[in-house]
Amino acid sequence: MTLTAVLLAGGESRRMGREKAAIVFRGQPFWQRQVELLRVLRPEKIFVSVRKEPSWLPLDTELLLDEPPSRGPLSGLTRALASTQTSHLVVLAVDMPFMTSEQMGILWSLAKIGCGVLPMIGNRAEPLAAIYPREAASDLFTALAGDNFSLQRLSHSLVQGGRLRVFQVSQREKELYRSVNETGDLPIETRRV
């Protein structure tokens, strides 16, 4: 099995009021922290999926721009999976700064040929810190061509179809998957603009 990675950083950050990727957390901007987590997995390639080219694009990554009209994370995920030449794609959202390389490594260790890994917190899927098999590309294209762009619905469909297996996130691990959407979601020392 081989791996490609994508950092999803295409959100508009409306609720945050500033670009999430540039927020400094534990001494690093979110984007840098997340790219380093992905590098630990030793992917053959790292994509950065965004709506428009960022000022911070790392030299060793490849830019993937959402094709308009953007359908949120589904657009970036579909484009990345379509561009993937490896057996699997690991996806990580830029706004999950609590994630660890150890947790991402656990997910990768659970992947199988033709089957990725979907973290579940209770009965809610976490499709933006997951591993997808290349075979799921057709399912994503179908979803993107439709009128329901929910990754929750799509994730459950991929599990039912055998493209993803569920990884039940423990209470202790739950915090790792927390998204930062508003200033109040940030630790106090990170809230300064």
Write out key terms for the chains shown.
single chain, 193 residues, alpha/beta, Spore Coat Polysaccharide Biosynthesis Protein SpsA, Chain A, three-stranded mixed β-sheet, 22% strand, globular
Quick overview of this protein structure:
26% of the residues lie in helices and 22% in strands. It is α/β, with parallel strands linked by helices.
Task: Note down, in words, how this protein is organized.
The chain has 193 residues and is an alpha/beta fold. It has a single domain (3-190), classed as Alpha-Beta Complex (Spore Coat Polysaccharide Biosynthesis Protein SpsA, Chain A), CATH 3.90.550. Helices cover 26% and strands 22% of the residues. It has helices at 30-40, 73-83, 101-110, 137-145, 151-160, and strands spanning 3-8, 24-25, 28-29, 46-50, 62-65, 88-93, 116-121, 124-125, 129-133, 164-168. It has a 5-stranded mixed beta sheet with strand order 5-4-1-6-9, with helices on both faces. Strands 8-7-10 form a 3-stranded mixed beta sheet. Helix 2 runs antiparallel to helix 4 (137-145).
